[in-house]
Write a structure and sequence with these properties.
By secondary structure, the chain is of the alpha+beta class. 35% of the residues lie in helices and 26% in strands. The protein has 8 helices and 14 strands. The strands form 3 sheets. A 7-stranded mixed sheet has the order 3-4-5-6-7-8-9, with helices on both faces. A 5-stranded mixed sheet has the order 11-10-12-14-13, sandwiched between helices. Strand 3, helix 3 and strand 4 form a beta-alpha-beta unit. Helix 6 runs parallel beside helix 7. The chain is globular and about 50 Å long. Its EC number is 3.1.3.25.
Length: 281
């Protein structure tokens, strides 16, 4: 069991490559064999027709739960599908043990439709602090990684988000209206202004990667589920970006955030987007 936060750095120095291997193997064993091969009985709805789960989600999460737990004895896993089955397991994010935050297939809707815009997300945190993350898009064979204080990388190359291009509309990926309250819809309307080009988001993990790469300028999301955000938030931070809630504070993976919130390729853009959201909310 890890007793000091510093020893997480030691664990990562020894085993970051083993985590990467586990993520790749989970995708190879449980996700990609089902890509564009799903039978009707392998797809179910959770909260509604836009909230899907497949056998690939369930089996990849089980694979990662076993593999990651074995790599770091004493750690716990908070996975999207396990929390759906037992919401109380989400409380581990606020506990003392190191926690693996897992979304086995982020972008399940795209996966079900045979599109490549999905990924596997893994983050390692303790006491609400993100220490490392892995974002793997298996259909594209792209792996983005980040370690706190050590930078963000895509397939081994350093990522620098950098500031947006002057004079160009800000490209902002936003929550789909189906997943927003009336108050959140009003806040998101603040982005419908001159100089901003909002659009509905796809896979959250890949939207964060686009920000970290400087291909997109910001996100504006209205939900807190840590498995969707943890990996990407660290990736954006380590690429030089920032994230803010409506009250101007960084997003907390432990919850209780004013929503919507933004992650952006630099601090100035994060402040601008947050201010627009707050002014309309």
């Amino acid at each position: 069991m890890i007793e000091e936060s510093g020893t997480i750095d030691e664990f990562l120095a020894r085993h970051a490559a083993d985590v990467e291997e586990a993520v790749r193997k989970a995708a190879a064993a449980e996700i990609m064999p089902r890509f564009r091969q799903l039978a009707a009985h392998e797809v179910d709805q959770k909260s509604g027709p836009h909230d899907l789960v497949t056998d690939a989600d369930r089996k990849a999460e089980l694979y990662l739960t076993e593999a990651l737990g074995a790599l770091l004895p004493g750690s716990v896993v908070v996975g999207e599908e396990a929390v759906h089955a037992n919401p109380a397991t989400y409380e581990a994010i606020r506990g003392d043990a190191p926690v693996w935050i897992v979304d086995p297939v982020d972008g399940t809707r795209q996966f079900v439709h045979g599109e490549e815009g999905f990924c596997t997300l893994v983050a390692l945190a303790r006491h609400g602090v993100l220490h490392a993350s892995w974002t793997y898009a298996p259909a594209r064979d792209q792996l983005a990684t980040a370690v706190k204080g050590q930078g963000a990388f895509l397939d081994g190359e350093r990522l620098y988000a950098g500031p947006p291009t002057p004079g160009r509309d800000l490209r902002v990926a936003t929550s789909h209206p189906d997943y927003t309250t009336d108050d959140q819809k009003r806040a998101l309307l603040g982005l419908r202004t001159e100089g901003v080009a909002p659009r509905p988001c796809g896979s959250a993990g890949l939207e964060y990667l686009a920000v970290a790469r400087g291909e997109s300028d910001a996100t504006a999301f209205s939900w807190e589920a840590a498995w969707d955000h943890a990996a990407g938030l660290l990736l954006v931070e380590e690429a030089g970006g920032a994230h803010l809630t409506l009250t101007g504070e960084p997003f907390r993976i432990t919850g209780g955030n004013p929503l919507p919130f933004t992650a952006a390729r630099d601090a100035a853009t994060a402040r601008r987007v947050a201010a627009l959201l707050a002014s309309a909310g």
